[in-house]
């Protein structure tokens, strides 16, 4: 299984558990690894046969604009479920950072993996 990467994608969204956070947008930084087999696209040079990282990045920006969550956990879980369903992604890993949320820390956040990301014997690993 190969992986398409999207790194340090910045999105602005309403997110947080405190009252003051409900009235502002805050920046999140996202790293994604998207499991796919790149060989069909590589053999034909056809974007339609792979995961379009530009289209997925745009969808993430729209998701962030349209949703207001309290927890980063909810944002991450719902985003991953949406992307997997809409783009048919077998497995993916997401690292989400909320810089500045804890002033003494460079970043706080989480990472999650959903579906199958690890190589298997069937993939020729
Ligand atoms: N595990 C989490 N802890 C905290 C979250 C969160 O989303 N997940 N959020 C906050 C506040 O919104 C914080 O980011 C404001 O500085 C606190 N802890």
Automatic annotation (TrEMBL):
The keyword Lyase is annotated on this UniProt entry: yes
Pfam families: FolB
Residue ranges of domain Dihydroneopterin aldolase/epimerase in the record: 4-114
Gene3D superfamilies registered for this protein in UniProt: 3.30.1130.10
Pathway membership: Cofactor biosynthesis; tetrahydrofolate biosynthesis; 2-amino-4-hydroxy-6-hydroxymethyl-7,8-dihydropteridine diphosphate from 7,8-dihydroneopterin triphosphate: step 3/4
CDD domains per UniProt: DHNA_DHNTPE (cd00534)
Keywords of the record: Folate biosynthesis, Lyase
InterPro entries hit by this protein: Dihydroneopterin_aldolase (IPR006156), FolB_dom (IPR006157), GTP-CH-I_C/QueF (IPR043133)
Lyase in keyword set: yes
EC numbers for this chain: 4.1.2.25
Reactions catalysed, as given in the entry: 7,8-dihydroneopterin = 6-hydroxymethyl-7,8-dihydropterin + glycolaldehyde
Similarity comment: family membership: Belongs to the DHNA family.
Function: Catalyzes the conversion of 7,8-dihydroneopterin to 6-hydroxymethyl-7,8-dihydropterin.
Protein name in the entry: 7,8-dihydroneopterin aldolase
Organism expressing this protein natively: Halomonas cibimaris
Lineage: Bacteria, Pseudomonadati, Pseudomonadota, Gammaproteobacteria, Oceanospirillales
Encoding gene (name): folB
């Amino acid at each position: 299984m190969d992986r398409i990467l999207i790194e340090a994608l910045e999105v602005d969204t309403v997110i947080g558990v405190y009252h003051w956070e409900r009235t502002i947008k805050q920046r999140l930084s996202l790293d994604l690894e998207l499991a796919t087999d790149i060989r069909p696209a590589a053999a034909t040079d056809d974007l339609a046969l792979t995961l379009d990282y530009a289209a997925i990045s745009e969808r993430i920006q729209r998701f962030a604009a349209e949703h207001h969550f309290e927890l980063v956990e909810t944002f991450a879980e719902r985003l991953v479920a949406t992307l997997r369903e809409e783009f048919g992604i077998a497995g993916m890993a997401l690292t989400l950072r909320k810089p500045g949320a804890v002033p003494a820390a460079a970043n706080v956040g989480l990472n999650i993996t959903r579906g199958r990301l690890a190589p298997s014997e069937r993939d020729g690993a």
